[in-house]
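Let's sit down with a protein and look at its sequence and fold side by side. Please make up or recall a protein chain and show it to me in full. Label the sequence line and the structure token line clearly, so we can match residues to local backbone shapes. Go ahead whenever you are ready, and we will take it from there.
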Amino acid sequence: MKRSKLVTGAVLLAAIFTSGIAFAGNMSINGSTTVLPIAQTVAEAFMKEHPDVIISVSGGGSGNGIKALIDGTTDIADASRAMKDEEIEMAKEKGAKPVEFVVAYDCIVPVVHTKNPLKNITVDQLKAIYKGEVKNWKELGGLDKPIVVISRDTSSGTYEVWEEKVMKKERVYPGALLMASNGAIVQTVSKNINAIGYVGLGYMDKSIKMLSVNSITGSKETTLNKTYPVSRPLFMYTRKQPSGDVKIFMDYVINKDKGQDLVGKSGFIPLK
């Protein structure tokens, strides 16, 4: 999948000097690396239509984005899981009243090297792998090779959804290699024939192979009809009921002909 380039300070600075426009406002978006491609793509399209608004977009994980929202250092937090009650209370203590926007749907898919012969895996088998109980691919009908377990770090919303829906609240075993982003997992798995990882559907490309789960393939259809067992909504949060440029941007994100069209083009699942 073609990735939108991260909007960097250098790019934004160049835009200022080449456009000759006095910018009306700055906006920052921070958080989930799963939501990052959506935020990047939509922000770039939005700035073309609203050249008086400058938007910076960064990843770092859902937990970090939510923390930035609580601290008031970002306008919008991307999250691949819902805010926790304690996070909402912390935000209120700092004068914020977070507002939740569902901006897309996604499913988390297990991925392996393209030369791995396995095609399907069960939720119970995934749990056993990530608990460190199943350590060789031959136990699953694969090659006689040790399984290299790749997981997201604990600040990731994707990790928390995996922990809930696959691990059933049990922790991933200490021998797993922890990665800070979906992209890092894709790169690692694509280079290691013995590896297994998990990524959001929007990160699937030809360098890795998706496994079906319980004989159900992760897709737009199986996510929306809730037959795929590891699916979820994706969120953006604002510190309060949005107004000004933030409101205009959020309206743009959920507009079916604008932001939602770009959600689909980014490889994720639009709201409708």
Notes: Residues 36-49 form the longest helix (14 residues).
